[in-house]
Each structure stands twice: as C-alpha cells, then as structure tokens.
Amino acid sequence: MKVELGTRSFEFPSEDLQELEASNNLLGDVEALRSQLERTGYLYLKNFHDRQEVLEARQKVLEYINATGQEKFDDIEEGLLNERCGLGCVPFMEGKPVITHSDAARKVLEGQRPFKFFQKLFGQDVATFDYKWLRAMHKRGFTGAHVDNVYMSRGTDKVLTMWTPFSDITPDIGTLAVCEGSNQLNSFDKFQKTYGQLDVEAAKLNGTGWFTEDPWEISKQFGGVWKTANYEAGDVLIFTLRTVHMSTVNLTSIARISCDTRWQPKDAKRDMRYFDCKEETDSPQFGVWAKDSTVTTTHFHGVTIEELKHQWGM
Ligand SMILES: O=C(O)CCC(=O)C(=O)O
Q1: Among 105, 207, 253, 284, which residue's beta carbon has the most beta carbons within 10 A?
Q2: In terms of Cα–Cα distance, which of 39, 79, 38 is closest to 58?
Q3: CATH 3.40.50.2000: does it fit domain 2-267+290-311?
Q4: Of 135, 165, 161, nearest to 147 (Cα)?
Q5: What are the E-state strand segments in 169-266?
Q6: Mind listing the pLDDT tens digit for each residue in 88-132?
Q7: Which of 4, 211, 247, 263 to mutate to test the pocket of ligand 1 (most atoms within 8 A of CB)?
Q8: Of 94, 150, 176, 211, best ligand 1 pocket probe by most atoms within 8 Å of the beta carbon
Q9: Looking at residue 287, what is its pLDDT?
Q10: Ligand 1 pocket, 250 CB below 6 A?
Q11: Residue % of the chain over a pLDDT of 90
C-alpha cells in the first residue's frame, strides 16, 4: 500500500515504515508491559475496547459533524465526506464536552477497561484528563511529528496518551505512527533536552508545536524506526510524553475519526489546563490556547520552531 507519512511517501509495510508490534501477549505480566513501554515508547493493544461500543461512538460523532451545518457527507454510514470538504469543513471537536463527553464516547474513552488497565500499569489509582482530543481528519490532513511533552508538561511526567481509532483505519486513511525508541535512545538526548523540554505556550511558539512534517528529519538525524499499523476498531496505541509520533496523511475522502485521551496517577501533579471541563458547554474551555479565545498561534509575536532549531544547532 502506498502511504504518505507527513511529507514523505512510503510503501507500507517496508523498511522505512514498519508494522507496530502488538503487546497483547504481555497483558498478564505488568512488569513486561512496563519494560516494553520503556524500551519502545509504546504499547499497541489489539481489541482493547469493545468493538461495538467504539462503532457506536463513531456513529454519534458522524451525526454530530453532520448536524453542524451544510451537506458534508456523500455517505454518512461510510463516513465519506464530499469532495469539496477540506480544512474547516469538519468541526473542531477537541475539548468540546458536548461531543467528547457524550454517553457513547465516554463509554469507550472513560469506561472500565481503560481505568482498570491504567490502574494496573501505574500500580495505583488513576485520573484521566477531562480535555479530550477528538478529531475528524479530512482528505490530505495529517499531524506532524512531535512529543506530547511540549503541550502538557506542567503536571507529572508520567502522563501516558492513549490513541483510539473510531473505526478500522488503514494507513492511507491516516493512522498514528511512532518513532520507536525515540523516548529513550541515547541518540535522542539532544532532541529530548531541547525540543522535548519545550513548553509551547510559555515559549509563545508561533506555530503548531510540531518539530517537523518530515519523518526523516527525525529518524535520519536522531535514529529510531517509524512504525504504524492497520488498526481495527477496538485497538489502541499507548505512548509516553517523550515518544515522537505523527500521523500518516488521509489520502481518502473518509473522515478519519480518532481520539487521544491522557492518563496519569491520580495523586500526581496535574496540568490544570486540561482538567475541570464544564460539561454543559460546547465551546473549548481548556487546552493550550483556550485561556484567551481571541489568541491564535499566528497572533503571537513569538519564536518559530525553525528559529529554535537554529538556536539548538539543528
Ligand atoms: O490523531 C492525530 O492525528 C494525532 C494525535 C496526536 O498526535 C496527539 O494528539 O498528540
């Protein structure tokens, strides 16, 4: 299958873009799960959620998108957006409790399964961020390479992200890819001590917070191997705050629906930008830029990632 990872085209699977290794065989051994997470930076778990519940949540999201005006779908069951649908066509759903906290979404995203799993993994009670990064990615949309630490470093460094696709998603529709080992390899030391420590809001970063849209700028400079998967509804990818990740480009007209939820030990310090969402509102209350709704990244007279890379000697 021909896929695009950011600005590069690859065959999947191939040496440049390999398949994620599932860790279901380790589920009975928490120490083995922890060391796999520590070594590779991720845990890929097949059939983690109930497939039917995931598909019901997807249905709810499709209906929500459709209800936000204009004819958006050629085929709503298939999630097929019409050809004219590009950036701005699908509503921004990150941190919008009206849809992220709908019963169908919550059943999956805050159900017993993730709570029990993370309790076992952390070995203590856990909390999940109220703010949820629910998105529908349109044709040609993708996410650039970054670590989550640049957006959420004000609480504990133990936060883990769980990426949940809301349907079967092949890499030509837009899947999450990780750079394996980027969280711990010595060759990433400089990257992690510079970009990895950045707080994009405090730095007034002018831009997305992504390090690059080119996966090779990471792997050729610092090492690691890019991996992704043919995900099925129910699967999840869990990764650390320091794991470099990005998404493949959506080459189709199918809306790629997925959600990132974040998990941490309950008593550990919290990044309060992402807790205490107001249930009754449909406007984003929290998130990196939510304190002043008039501020967009382009209004900052701040620094760009290119300027920072120059300062870091990259
Ligand atoms: O789903 C995506 O495209 C990217 C998710 C992600 O990288 C994130 O929220 O940190």
Answers
A1: 105
A2: 79
A3: no
A4: 161
A5: 176-180, 225-228, 236-240, 245-247, 256-265
A6: 788 889 999 999 999 999 999 999 999 999 999 999 999 999 999
A7: 247
A8: 176
A9: 57
A10: no
A11: 84
In sequence order, the β-bridge partners of residue 179 are 226
Q: How far is the CA of 141 from the centre of ligand 1 (A)?
A: 12
Task: Determine the distance separating the centroid of ligand 1 and the alpha carbon of 299, expressed in angstroms.
Answer: 23
Phi, psi torsion values for 9, nearest 5 degrees:
-100, 135
pLDDT higher than threshold 90 for residue 85: no
Compute the distance from residue 119 Cα to the ligand 1 centre, in Å: 23
Q: Which residues does 116 contact at the CB level (< 8 Å), separation at least 6?
A: none
Of 32-36, 82-86, 121-125, 215-219, which range is least confident?
Answer: 82-86
Which atom of ligand 1 is nearest the CA belonging to 247?
3
Residue boundaries of the structural domains of the chain: 2-267+290-311
Res 32 pLDDT > 60: yes
CA–CA distance, 240 with 39 (Å, rounded to integer): 11
Query: Which stretch of 58-72, 83-97, 258-272, 286-300 has the lowest confidence by average pLDDT?
Result: 286-300
Whole-Å CA distances, 53 to 27, 57, 107: 21, 6, 7
